[in-house]
């Protein structure tokens, strides 16, 4: 079945999220690559969310980032606000509870976060002068009293970026493109990571104040680690039913964002999701949002446009798109 035929027959009333096993992701055998790309294509056309197993990020790397986040959030509010996201260029630093809002219908998001972008683990001289940062240029800011924090969260960041670099060729193959289609569009790792803390919401929960309001992500895809044992994330299908996406040991969630929907003229879905922490205990999660370089224009891939499926989106650069969405979310 051709890509557009498959897209026309999409079954988006899903009731579960598919698994993709990345064990063979580096295997060059064409039949193995094709089988993997076909599975990815189905997930992207029908659901826009998938679980990846054998993702290659060591437990130890995850645990270090988690422990660093716990320490960060346990600081006083005044301390955290020393690196207030509202005081930095281009959305780096700390977001307080209720100061972001992902769903315009809601009053605010019941989570706090810390946000940063690409940086070498060992700083090089040219850091801060990266080419093509355009609309999103701006150095990271780090907490002053937590010496290991930067190294521990950047350790996870680099591992997740490496995983993302293996996913781009799979998405390309799933779109019947050459595996290297995204290589010249992802030279700079336009990837933003957030560590998130959701306090428990008990008693009567105001539906307009939940962990993170219903939204789509902005970049090509998100690699999401969720704290084990706590159900919070939900994904909306086209029957308007919320499907639980619980943490599953040994897996990460990968969901598509608006940039891939734009690249593919909605052949691949950027699916609405939200998180509500009614578990009674605090919850942590770590999304990494990986987009195309900020100066790259989000032009629809020709095989995703036809007379029956004309181009749906105005062409903008990836950086302008992300920046507009971040402005709307953080209100500044
Ligand atoms: O915490 C989660 O499970 C989801 C977070 C999320 O959707 C986001 O940060 O965009
Ligand atoms: Fe999200």
Question: Please, could you describe this protein's structure?
Answer:
The chain is α+β, with helices and mostly antiparallel strands and 332 residues long. Helix content is 26%, strand content 19%. The strands form three sheets. Strands 1-2-12-9-14-6-5-3 form an eight-stranded mixed beta sheet. A four-stranded antiparallel beta sheet has the order 8-13-10-11, with no helix packed on it. It has a two-stranded parallel sheet with strand order 4-7. Strand 1, helix 2 (30-46) and strand 2 (49-53) form a beta-alpha-beta unit. Fe (ii) ion binds at residues 215, 217, 273.
List the helices and strands and how they pair.
Layout: H1 3-8, E1 19-21, H2 30-46, E2 49-53, H3 59-73, H4 77-80, E3 93-95, E4 108-109, E5 112-116, H5 149-174, E6 190-198, E7 209-210, E8 212-215, E9 221-226, E10 233-236, E11 242-244, E12 251-256, H6 258-263, E13 273-275, E14 283-291, H7 318-330
Parallel strand pairs: 1-2, 4-7
Antiparallel strand pairs: 2-12, 3-5, 5-6, 6-14, 8-13, 9-12, 9-14, 10-11, 10-13
Brief digest:
With 332 residues, this protein is an alpha+beta fold. 26% of the residues lie in helices and 19% in strands.
Alpha-carbon Rg, integer: 19 Å
Report the mean per-residue pLDDT as an integer.
Answer: 94
Number of helices: 7
Calculate the terminal CA-CA distance, rounded to whole Å.
Answer: 46 Å
Bound molecules: 2-oxoglutaric acid, fe (ii) ion
The shape, in one word, is globular
Which strand order spans the largest sheet, edge to edge or round the barrel?
A: 1-2-12-9-14-6-5-3
Biggest beta sheet attributes: 8 strands, mixed
Instruction: Identify low-pLDDT runs.
Output: none
Number of strands: 14
Helix content: 25-40%
Strand content: 15-25%
Pairing-aware structural class of the strands and helices? alpha+beta
Order of helices and strands: HEHEHHEEEHEEEEEEEHEEH
């Amino acid at each position: 079945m051709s890509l557009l035929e498959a897209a026309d027959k999409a079954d988006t009333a899903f009731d579960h999220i598919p698994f993709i096993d990345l064990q063979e992701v580096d295997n060059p055998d064409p039949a193995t690559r094709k089988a993997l790309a076909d599975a990815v294509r189905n997930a992207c056309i029908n659901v826009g969310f998938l679980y990846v197993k054998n993702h290659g990020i060591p437990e130890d790397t995850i645990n270090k980032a988690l422990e660093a986040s716990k320490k960060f959030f346990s600081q006083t509010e005044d301390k955290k606000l020393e690196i207030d996201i509202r005081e930095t260029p281009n959305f780096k630093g700390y977001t307080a509870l209720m100061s972001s809002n992902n769903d315009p219908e809601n009053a605010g998001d019941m989570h706090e976060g810390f946000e940063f972008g690409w940086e070498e683990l060992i700083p090089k001289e040219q850091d801060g002068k990266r080419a093509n940062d355009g609309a999103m240029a701006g150095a990271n800011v780090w907490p002053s009293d937590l010496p290991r924090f930067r190294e521990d969260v950047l350790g996870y960041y680099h591992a997740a970026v490496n995983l993302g670099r293996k996913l781009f060729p799979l998405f390309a193959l799933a779109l019947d493109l050459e595996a290297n289609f995204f290589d010249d569009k992802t030279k700079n790792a336009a990837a933003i990571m957030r560590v998130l803390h959701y306090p428990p919401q008990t008693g009567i929960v105001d539906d307009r104040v939940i962990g993170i309001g219903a939204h789509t992500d902005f970049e090509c895809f998100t690699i999401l680690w969720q704290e084990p044992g706590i159900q919070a994330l939900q994904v909306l299908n086209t029957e308007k039913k919320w499907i639980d996406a619980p943490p599953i040991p040994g897996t990460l969630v990968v969901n598509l964002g608006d940039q891939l929907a734009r690249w593919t003229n909605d052949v691949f879905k950027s699916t609405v999701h939200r998180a509500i922490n009614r578990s009674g205990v605090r919850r942590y999660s770590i999304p990494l949002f990986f987009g195309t370089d900020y100066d790259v224009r989000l032009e629809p891939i020709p095989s995703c446009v036809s007379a029956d499926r004309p181009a749906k989106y105005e062409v903008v650069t990836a950086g302008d798109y992300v920046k507009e969405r971040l402005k709307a979310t953080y209100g500044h």
